[in-house]
Amino acid sequence: MTTTATKKAHPTARVGGATDLTDLVLYSPEQVEANAWLPYSARTLRDRAGDRTFPHSKAGGRISFSLRHIREIQAMYEVRPIRELKRSA
Fold first, then answer.
1. I want to staple 40 with a disulfide (CB 3.0 to 4.6 A). Which of 3, 24, 44, 60 is the partner?
2. Virtual CA dihedral for 34, 40, 45, 48, nearest 10 degrees?
């Protein structure tokens, strides 16, 4: 009798559908500013998150940002060329 061994996935390989744990890391406004991921100061990031202009997380009562939030904020201010807008009409 031959059996095939199956490899068990690492318990943290998939957490809530996330395949990469870096998706779950949260960064403080100071970390976002220090790494220059966005052209805003930590104070501006806090203010805009507080008035719900920017997506953010408030885990543990502190404003923080995931990489997904940072990408969303960047996309909010993306400007497309006018010729792309004319084609869609």
1. 44
2. 180
Q: What is the pLDDT of residues 7-54, one digit of tens each?
A: 555 454 455 555 678 889 999 999 999 999 999 999 999 999 999 999
Q: Which two tokens stand for residue 19?
A: 């395949």
DSSP string, 12-38: TS-BTTBSSGGGG--B-HHHHHHTTSS
Query: CA–CA separation, 12 vs 48, rounded Å?
Result: 33
Residue with tokens 């940002």: 65
Look-up: residue for tokens 């009409």?
89
| β-sheet bridge partners, residue 15 | 18
Rg (CA), the chain: 20
Residue type, 6: T
Residue with tokens 């806090």: 46
